[in-house]
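Notes from the 1:1 (GR / supervisor)

We went over the backlog. Supervisor wanted to see one worked example end to end before approving the batch request, so GR pasted a single chain during the call. The sequence is below; no edits were made to it. Supervisor asked that the structure be written out right there so they could see what the output format looks like.
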Amino acid sequence: IGGDSPNEDLRVEEYDPATDTWCVKTSTPTERAYLGVAAVNWKIYSMGGIGMTYYSTLEEYDPATDTWTTKISMPTTYRSQLAVGVVNDKIYVIGGEDGSESLSLVEEYEPN
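Structure output shown during the call:
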């Protein structure tokens, strides 16, 4: 998901290990690189990142329907190069940078 060159910033690709093949899926709504990505309950979430600006955007991808939905943005800051983890079906976004400084923020998102 995403990339760091003009032709790859919206790209989503799916790998099938059973057939050792790749296919291109619906592109992300927001052009960005250095974003965070997490999976919870068969959905994929992309957040933050940088494109023309820094983003606090959160988007949900549903592989079953190959569609994207914009969710509520991260509350405190725009950031890229963030760490993301999932614990008990909650997404934790940790650190990153906002273009001028490194961040020590931790935010939690509960998709359910």
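Supervisor's comment: The radius of gyration is 14 Å.
Batch request approved.
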